[in-house]
Amino acid sequence: MSEVKKQERDYTPEVDALLPDAIALADSGKVPEAIDTLLALEKQTRNASDVKSTTRLATTIMDIAHKAQDWDLVVSSLSLLAKKHGQLKATIQAIVEQAVSWLDEIKEKAGLEAWFNTAEGVRTVSEGRIFLERERARVTLMLAHYHEKKAETEGLPSLETASEMLSEMQVETYSSMERKEKTQFILEQMRLLMRVAEAKDEQAGTDGKGEGGGEAEWVKVRISGRKVNEAFLTEKENEELKLKYYELMIKYGLHTEAYLDVAKYWYKVWETPSIKSDEGENGKGWLALVHIACFVIVAPHNNEQSDMLNRLFVDPALKKLESLYLLVKCFTTKELSRWPGVESLYGAMLEKTDVFTRETPGGRKRYEDLHTRVIEHNIRVIARYYTRMTLARLTSLLDLSVEKTEETLSRLVVAGTVYARIDRPAGIIDFKAKRGVEDVMNEWSTDMQKLLGLVEKSWMGMNAAMAAQARV
C-alpha cells in the first residue's frame, strides 16, 4: 500500500460501461473471465489513484464471488486485491467490511470450515493495518468463541488458543472502537484467561501458585482488569458491563484470598441501582449486603479494613440484617468476643451463606479465617486494656492452646498490629513498650510546655484582675 497520491484521472465512464458487461458475463457462468476483465481495469484505476472507481471494481469482484457462492474465491479475491501494489486504503477497507458482513451467511450456508477460512482470511489481510484494527478485533472475537466451543471436545489446547488470540489484541489503544465495545472485549479477555487458569489449576492439582498451574493467566487477569475504566462503568447504560466486570474481579479476589478487595467489589455491586432496590430476603441487594459484611469481617485487620467495617456498621441497611449487624458489632466494639459464644450464636447462620459454607474447600478455609479474626480482635482488645498478663490467662481468654496463642500473638507483633514481649520462663506477656530516652524527654518537654502555658495564662488573669481593682 503506497502513500496517498493525487488522483490523476477519473475512470468513472469506463467503469460504468464495464460493470454491466462483467456482471452479465458472471451470470452466464463465466466467473473467472468476468473477474479477469475487472482486474485489468482495476489496475489502471489503482495506478491513477481513482479511489471511487477502484473501490467499485473491487467490491464488484467480491460480489461476483459471493453471488457464485464460491467461498474459496471470496477469500482468494480478498487476499489478491489487498496485496496489489499501491492498493488504496479505502478499497481494502471496503472489501474487508464486505467479507465480515457475509460471515454469518457463510456459516449458515457453507458450514464452519468455510466460515473459518473466510474469517482467517480477514485476519490475515487486516494484520498490521491500523485502519482495519476494529474489523480484525471483531473477527478475532468470533474466532476465539469458535475455539472456545471446540474446547468442549478438544480440551485445554483449544481454550488456550482462544485466550491467546484475544489477549494479543490491545484494544485499549484502538481509536476506532467505542469505549463500550473496548470494555466488552477486555471482559471477554478476562473471562477466557480465567477459564484457562482454572483448567490449568485443576489439571496440575494446584491453587495456581505452584508449578504447572495457571499463575501466569491469573496475573494477566489482574493486568487486564486494570485496563477497565471503573468511572465509565458507573454510567446507567453500562450497568450490565459493570456487573460482569465485578463478577470477574470477585472471582479473581477469591482466588488470591484478597477478602477486603472482594468486599469492595461487592460494595460496588450493591451500589448499582437495580441491585440496591432489590431489598427483599434472598434478593440481589440483600445477597450483596450479606457478602459485603461477611468478607469485610474475614479480611485481615488494617486501617482500610477498620474504616470500611465501621462505615458498614453505621449504615442503616445493615440493621435490617439483625444477625450480621450484631456480628459486625462484635468487631467494632472494644470488648472480648469469645469464639465459642460467637460460633454458637452465628455459626449456623454463617454456614448457610456461600461465603462460609462447609461444603466447599474455600468456605471451610474462610470459616477458619473467621476464627482467626475473632482471636486477633480479642488480642487487640487485651493489648488495649492490659499492660501485662500471664500466658495461661491469655490462653484461657482466647480458648486456644499455648502453641496456637503464641503463634497468633507473634503474627500480630510481626505485622505491627500490637506490641508484645513474651517472657517464657516466667510465663508473662508484656503489652507495654519500653520507652526510650528520647520518648521520655519528648513527653517531659511537652508537659513542661503545657505547664508553662497554664502559668502564663494564670499570671495574665491575675494581672487583669489587679488592674480592674486598682481602677475601682
TrEMBL record:
The cellular component terms of Gene Ontology attached to this UniProt record, alphabetical and capped at eight, are: cytoplasm; nucleus; proteasome regulatory particle, lid subcomplex
Q: Which UniProt keywords apply?
A: Proteasome
Give the top-rank taxon of the lineage listed in the UniProt record for this protein: Eukaryota
Entries under Pfam families matching the protein: PCI, PSMD12-CSN4_N
Q: Does the keyword Transmembrane apply?
A: no
Q: Boundaries of each PCI domain copy?
A: 258-436
Q: Which PANTHER family match?
A: 26S PROTEASOME NON-ATPASE REGULATORY SUBUNIT 12, 26S PROTEASOME NON-ATPASE REGULATORY SUBUNIT 12/COP9 SIGNALOSOME COMPLEX SUBUNIT 4
Q: What is stated as this protein's family in its record?
A: Belongs to the proteasome subunit p55 family.
Q: What is this protein called?
A: PCI-domain-containing protein
The scientific name of the source species is Sistotremastrum niveocremeum HHB9708
